[in-house]
Structures are given as structure tokens and as C-alpha cells.
Write a structure and sequence with these properties.
Strand content: 25-35%
Number of domains: 2
Radius of gyration: 43 Å
Distance between the termini: 102 Å
Structural class: alpha+beta
Order of helices and strands: EEHHHEHHEEEEHHHHEEE
Strand order of the largest sheet: 3-4-5-6-7-10-9-8
Number of strands: 10
Shape: rod-shaped
């Protein structure tokens, strides 16, 4: 026996209405059946098949778009090859190295560039018994052009410093070498000038004695001007200039210093 869901009166399975309250028991207990059709099944199968095909394609497209949006500098970060130069203006600095070892360690195809630099350093050592301090600045731009700045400095004595700067780029848009002799602790005008022995010393690096002689001779005629201005020599000093060379005197505390500077444009690139 079971009870009427509305009044609780006992009813049998054969009762269609509650004898006590008249509740329609057929509607109250009629089970709800889900009807499925062949068309519904076909639609379900089609959706499953579509998902197997479309999802991998959409995922692949997403990865492709994501890769294209990553900056080039990030895409090659783990590369061991320095890529070819892109025909575009650089917009940022990608990497910077201050040692040849780090540069060579990062890129496996720059050995020839490093070898050329090392060979140049050997030629410096052949000019005399000099010990050069080395300073490297190797900058990789985001179009994969590389800017090289190599600085070699040696103190010949407590009064003379020779500095050689090599600047060039991988794209071969510039290539220059700047050599300078700095003479410090000079107290008189004559001390600032170079004598024959000093000219011969710098000639090992510049190899243009004619230009050196002309510069020193021209400046030697400016003694009166130097004496008139020596107490107020500023940042730019007092100098004599040619197209690719200069001789400039500066005040340094209670003493003076002169700098002979010579620049050449080289035809042989080292990288």
C-alpha cells in the first residue's frame, strides 16, 4: 500500500484517483521519459567528429600567431648561430659582450671574427715591448648587425700613454682606427711639444711622420697664445687640427697635458 501524496490516504496501485481527496494519481506518478531520435544522434556524432578535426587546427593556428608576435630577439635567444643581417633599420640593442670568450661562447659561427681581432692584437705586440690593457664592447643589434669597439691602452712611462681604438661594424658601414699619444705632467710650453725621440716612438703606431711634424711645427708657433690663455684653458683646450689629425693642449690641475690624435679609415674589416 502507498499513500496519496496530497492527503496521505492509503491507496492501491489500481487506483486512478484518490478515494479521499480525488487527486489524479495518473498524472502525479507518470514518469518523464526522454525521447531521442536518429536525427539527434546524427547531430551528436557530427559534433564529436568536428571537434576532433577543428580543435587541433585551431590550436596550431594559435601557436603560429603566438610565435609571430614574439619579438625576434626572444625567438633566437637560445640559438647558437649569429643570424644573417636583416635588411631593416635596428630599433634596439639585443646583446652586449665585454669579452671575446663570452661572444664566442654565445655564437658558434663568430670564430673568424674573434681570430681576426686576436691577429690584430698580435701586430700591436710586435711594435715594441708594450703591455696593453684591453677593453671590448661588442653590441648585437636586433637586426643582427654587430658594432665592435676595441680599446687598447698602454702606459709607456708615468708621463706617456698610448691608446688605440678600433671601431667598425658587421654591415661594413664604417671602419676607423684612432691612435693617440697623451703626454701628461708638463709644466712649460716646451714640455708639451714632442721631441724627435717621442715622434719616433709614436711613429711605430701612426706611421705618418710628415703629418706629425706638421702638427707639432704649427703648434710651436702658438706659444704667445698659449701663455695668454693657459690659466683659462677649458674642456676643449687649445689645439691645431688637420683633416684626420689633431694636437691639443689641456690644463690638468697645476700642470698641462697634450694629446696627439690620428685617425684613419681602414679598408680591411675584421668582422
Amino acid at each position: 500500500m502507498k499513500q496519496c501524496p496530497r492527503c496521505g490516504y492509503k491507496i492501491t496501485d489500481e487506483d486512478k484517483y484518490c478515494p479521499h481527496c480525488g487527486l489524479d494519481l495518473q498524472r502525479q506518478y507518470k514518469p518523464l521519459k526522454k525521447k531521442t531520435t536518429k536525427a539527434t544522434n546524427y547531430l551528436l556524432y557530427a559534433l564529436i567528429l568536428f571537434s576532433f578535426i577543428s580543435v587541433p587546427l585551431l590550436y596550431s593556428q594559435f601557436l603560429n600567431n603566438f610565435s609571430q608576435n614574439i619579438p625576434l630577439t626572444q625567438q633566437i635567444q637560445n640559438s647558437t648561430l649569429l643570424p644573417d643581417i636583416i635588411e631593416a633599420e635596428p630599433t634596439a640593442l639585443f646583446q652586449s659582450f665585454d669579452t671575446l670568450a663570452d661572444y664566442k661562447k654565445e655564437y658558434s659561427n663568430v670564430s673568424s671574427f674573434v681570430t681576426n681581432i686576436e691577429n690584430f692584437e698580435k701586430t700591436l705586440s710586435q711594435k715594441g715591448e708594450y703591455t696593453f690593457e684591453k677593453e671590448y664592447s661588442i653590441q648585437v643589434l636586433n637586426n643582427y648587425n654587430v658594432l665592435y669597439r676595441l680599446v687598447y691602452t698602454t702606459m709607456i712611462s708615468d708621463q706617456y700613454e698610448i691608446k688605440i681604438i678600433k671601431e667598425y661594424d658587421r654591415a661594413h658601414s664604417y671602419n676607423r682606427e684612432i691612435t693617440s699619444l697623451r703626454k701628461i705632467k708638463a709644466e712649460t710650453f716646451e714640455d708639451l711639444l714632442l721631441n724627435d725621440e717621442e715622434k719616433e716612438m709614436i711613429n711605430h703606431f701612426i706611421n705618418d711622420r710628415t703629418t706629425i711634424d706638421q702638427l707639432i711645427q704649427t703648434y710651436s708657433l702658438r706659444k704667445d697664445e698659449f701663455n695668454a690663455k693657459k690659466e683659462k684653458l677649458g674642456h676643449y683646450g687649445l689645439g691645431t687640427y688637420q683633416d684626420n689629425a689633431s694636437f691639443v693642449v689641456y690644463r690638468y690641475g697645476e700642470t698641462y697635458q697634450s694629446e696627439l690624435k690620428y685617425q684613419i679609415e681602414s679598408k680591411d674589416y675584421m668582422g
